[in-house]
Specification:
The complex is a heterodimer of chains A (410) and B (223). By secondary structure, chain A is α+β, with helices and mostly antiparallel strands. Chain A contains 14 helices and nine strands. Chain A folds into two domains: 190 residues, no CATH class; 208 residues, no CATH class. By secondary structure, chain B is an alpha/beta fold. In chain B, strand 4 and strand 5 form a beta hairpin. The two termini of chain B are 19 Å apart. The chains are: A alpha+beta (410), B alpha/beta (223). At the A-B interface, helix 1, helix 10, helix 11 and helix 14 of A face helix 2 and helix 3 of B. Bound molecules: adenosine-5'-triphosphate and magnesium ion.
Chain lengths: 410, 223
Amino acid sequence: MKSFMFLSQFVRDMRAQKLRTFLTIFGIIWGTISIVLLLGFGVGLGRQLKKNLHGLGEGLVILWPGKTSIPYQGMGRGRQLHFREDDAFLLEREIQQIKYICPEYARWGVELKQQKNTYAAQVRGVYPVYRLMRNAIPSREGRFLNPVDIDKKRRVIFLGNKVKEELFKDDSAEGKYITLNGIPFQVVGVLKEKHQNSSYGGRDEYTTYIPATTFSTIFGHKYISNMIVQGHDPRQNKALQERILQVLGKKYRFHPEDREALWVWDLMESEKVFMAMGIGFNIFFSLVGAFTLIVGGIGVSNIMNVVVEERTREIGLKMALGAKKGFVLSQFLFETLMITLIGGAIGLAISYGIIAVFPAGEIEQYIGRPTLSLGVALVAVALLGLIGFISGFGPAKRAANLNPVEAIRS
Amino acid sequence: MIKMKKIEKIYGTGTAKVEALRGIDLDIKKNEFFGLIGPSGSGKSTLMNIIGCLDVPTSGEYYFEEKDIKSFNHNQLAEIRNEKIGFVFQNFNLLPYATTFENVEIPMIFKGARAKERKARTMELLDAVGLAGRAHHKPSELSGGEMQRVAIARALANNPSLILADEPTGNLDTKSGDEILAIFENLWKQGHTLVVITHNPNISKRAQKVVKLKDGSIENNNR
Ligand SMILES: Nc1ncnc2c1ncn2[C@@H]1O[C@H](COP(=O)(O)OP(=O)(O)OP(=O)(O)O)[C@@H](O)[C@H]1O
Ligand SMILES: [Mg+2]
């Protein structure tokens, strides 16, 4: 009854103020769309950044030999270091925190050939554990390199998905043969497509992998290109790095604090930066949306003030007939909440539509898929409610505090 | 029913100060037909607003049904207006967008009566003022006399003990005014207390007691 009265009153007010109502609701719709979309894109972007980062591997530490920069134990600076496979096994033995470690050989510009198709690719010699560390997941029937391949120095190769496309086009590659600098290799697997926003030595999709043992036999490399290390607890990566410096420093006789003797890329650090960036984006987006909503709220407040003014006489009469302040207050709060609710609902619906038809594909790799999560919706609804309440409170309070006698006379 | 002692009402301050009421003593008994007359600006409406708990006096004492109105807060005053007092205004003061039925229903909504009760009571009242057939008309479709009859029906909605009318026939022709007077007399016979501000000698003639205000004071207190 009372609420029905509120509702019919609301409809009348809004009809009487068509243009103003339209503009105000439009403002709220606009604010809602921007906040929901921005937050939605923010969530999607954050998720994508993280996913892309994990395309490289989670919490990895990557090590390259460098040049010494501190004279140590009678040796001058500027000495170029080289690592061997054994160093990886040494580190694994010496350092408890290491969960996985894998040495990597690398060679660029190796000519791959499949019938008439040729492609100059990067070939890396690795161990099976590489699959776990670097998320080198095979697609469908294929597999990654296995321990038998290592033991038997098999001539098998795992292809990045783009390399496979270059050589085989749409055909399947698994089980077929290609040649590496003229030597036949059997393809055991193809990398399942993955998102990756950072890399070293080239994107995985353009890289090929053969057993480390086969690699050193064929190409005769004494030294590895780098090692990748994964600790049991990525949060302890700093301590892990220090241990690595100690152990390798002892072996190669460089100063344990010589940061240039060993180039270290700690993915945890990058992850932190990305996370901070994601949070930063979200804060920025939220602020933009919130300000838009505040502007909408001012519009609502304005329209309610006009409504109160126009209905002063009626408010006075209702109070004379026994309406309590609370009734008048809630009537006007109800109206502002209705405006924000209607605008908010339309805005949410439109945003949902935009997100639903958002074109997937290439750009998704970089900015992710915008997501209308429950959290985003809740934030938007809470904000709208708050804006509605704040913008309605002033006019409503003013209406409730009118002196009935003067209001009737007006 | 109503007792007033040394009621004063001052509007504004400084040079804009208006002493609308200067020490009014008043005693209105239950079931009295009370007339209030006086020239324009003498303070009749001001007194009426105070009697009707729409406004509070600047000083003095006012007892409504033996209770000091100073002891009531906003909401309690609203309840008194809603349940014990019915207002009838010179210019009707109907909600223009609402139908006859909806206008009469309003005080019952504020009281929290159920829709069924409200409907029955509204039809009963409209029937009593001879407007049952006009329940779904808007005020703009009614004559002045009909509008005032709607206003009276509205004033009676919660069956108040006191009915206050501020120049109820001021905007009506003689015939309509007489109809309104007839309704008032009827209400009086039914046991309502009536306080009517009027310039209409027909009304003041019928009143049991007439008080004349001049410059905010009671001039004579005969009859
Ligand atoms: N809200 C107000 N502020 C200031 N002065 C007021 C106010 N209301 C009434 N007055 C003044 O108080 C005095 C009494 O006014 P009131 O309306 O009670 O007179 P009235 O007897 O009802 O006159 P009328 O017959 O014209 O209706 C007048 O001088 C009026 O100007
Ligand atoms: Mg008056």
